[in-house]
Design brief:
The chain is an alpha/beta fold. It is built from 16 helices and eight strands. The chain folds into three domains: 30-204, Rossmann fold, CATH 3.40.50.300; 209-291, Helicase, Ruva Protein, domain 3 (Orthogonal Bundle); 295-404, Arc Repressor Mutant, subunit A, CATH 1.10.10.10. It binds adenosine-5'-triphosphate (ATP).
Length: 408
């Protein structure tokens, strides 16, 4: 008996909803595209390229627009014999210094087998090797540095590279940097001299609104899903949910993908709003679990204190009561507890992550105090904590208490 069988009732091209898909057209970014094209114009004219800095929240099309425009640019400059354009793209996420970025760029430019070691050279030597490689390629070179904020304050390369030609370190190559970031603080923290050059042209990508996301999603759904398996209401719901949250096209696409998967796995013939709701819960759960996983042990224990008060139906809980519960949990778990001030900081972090909400209560003579409650479903928090803390009995007791109190 065959155990795997092809299912293609809902999807016509599932890959079109995935991150790696390069859309043929970009919706709703006409103004940004126009400004971006202006910034790239010197390349076509044969002059030194501008350095461009793109910023905006995650999922708002910075990478998609860059790939789309650079691919058009590469096609269009073929017309001009005196423009020899190369594009080198690097995601800086795993690289935390100028040194590491420079090594990666050298290795990207060198032929296979000629890579240099990632450690052991003085920084200036690596920069010099990079200049050599860039001159070897020659012509106009655009370096696309995605997630450029990962470089942190070790940003010497961003100072040196734009000045390399005027200092005589580069002779043949005309280099432009395209920096992309979703960290709004990064730009402001840069040394003013780096800011001046790197941010020569700045493009901000705002979050999408519901209508914009509906249009982006409709075009993608037409490719990804079979006709008559969905209707506009489903697309609009995904768009509205994503617009209300972060205005991210990635989030809207993920919702539609997951909703369609739910329909296909359930052998339904159509994607419905019910599937979208289920997908939203699933994504929310993943987000919460991811956030919780990244906490320290005392972050987990502080959250568990709130969770156990929530299971009793007693939240919002005052910070003093949460701290007492935390002490009790630490005692039972056999770990040394932190001072109340530190636990308060953990609670603030949980609030920043969107896992708790806090209220400041003004109580006159007795001063102000905070009270906290869960901002995520109890079960999501329990499931995530269960993976992190070895306390099976306590979790099972908590579930019983929550059921008794009809808390979910
Ligand atoms: N205007 C648009 N038209 C069509 N598709 C889009 C548009 N904007 C974003 N997308 C799609 O949404 C997804 C996320 O976009 P993209 O990766 O460009 O976001 P980003 O701003 O670079 O995010 P991050 O900062 O997280 O890298 C991609 O699949 C992309 O194809």
């Amino acid at each position: 008996m065959r155990r795997f069988e092809r299912k293609r009732a809902i999807f016509a091209n599932k890959d079109a909803l995935r991150e790696s898909y390069q859309p043929d057209s970009i919706e709703e970014r006409d103004e940004e595209i126009e400004a971006y094209m202006d910034a790239l114009q010197p390349v076509v004219d044969g002059w030194e390229p501008n350095n461009v800095f793109l910023y905006g929240n995650t999922g708002v099309g910075k990478t998609a627009v860059t790939e789309y425009l650079l691919s058009l640019l590469q096609d269009d400059v073929e017309e001009y014999d005196d423009v020899d354009l190369s594009v080198v793209s690097l995601n800086c996420k795993p690289l935390s210094s100028s040194y590491q970025v420079a090594v990666e760029l050298v290795n990207e430019l060198r032929p296979d087998g000629g890579e240099i070691s990632t450690t052991g050279y003085p920084q200036q030597t690596v920069f010099n090797k990079l200049y050599e490689e860039l001159d070897e390629v020659g012509g106009t070179i655009l370096l696309v540095l995605d997630e450029i904020d990962a470089i942190g304050d070790r940003d010497e390369l961003l100072y040196e590279l734009p000045r390399a030609r005027s200092k005589g370190d580069l002779e043949d190559a005309k280099v432009g940097i395209i920096g992309i970031s979703n960290d709004f603080k990064f730009r402001d923290q840069l040394d003013p001299r780096v800011q001046d050059t790197l941010c020569e042209r700045e493009l901000q990508f705002p979050p999408y609104n519901a209508q914009e996301l509906t249009n982006i999603l409709s075009s993608r759904a037409e490719i990804a899903l079979r006709e008559d398996t969905y209707d506009e209401a489903v697309v609009r719901l995904c768009a509205a949910l994503a617009a209300k949250d972060r205005g991210s096209a990635r989030q809207a696409l993920d919702l539609l993908l997951l909703a369609a998967e739910q329909a296909e796995n359930g052998d339904d013939d159509r994607v419905s709003e019910r599937h979208v709701e289920a997908a939203r819960h699933e994504l929310e759960r993943e987000r919460v679990e991811e956030g919780i996983r990244q906490l320290t042990q005392h972050g987990h224990l502080a959250l568990l204190a709130v969770v156990s008060i929530a299971a009793e139906g007693d939240t919002p809980g005052r910070s003093r009561a949460i701290y007492d519960r935390y002490l009790d949990i630490c005692d039972g778990y056999g770990v040394d507890s932190l001072a109340q001030r530190s636990v308060h900081n953990h609670l603030s972090d949980l609030r920043m992550l969107g896992i708790l909400t806090a209220r400041e209560n003004r109580s006159g003579s007795r001063g102000n105090f905070y009270s906290y409650e869960l901002d995520v479903p109890l079960e999501s928090a329990l499931t995530a904590l269960e993976d992190e803390l070895d306390m099976q009995q306590r979790f099972s007791d908590l579930r019983t208490v929550a059921t008794m109190n009809e808390v979910r």
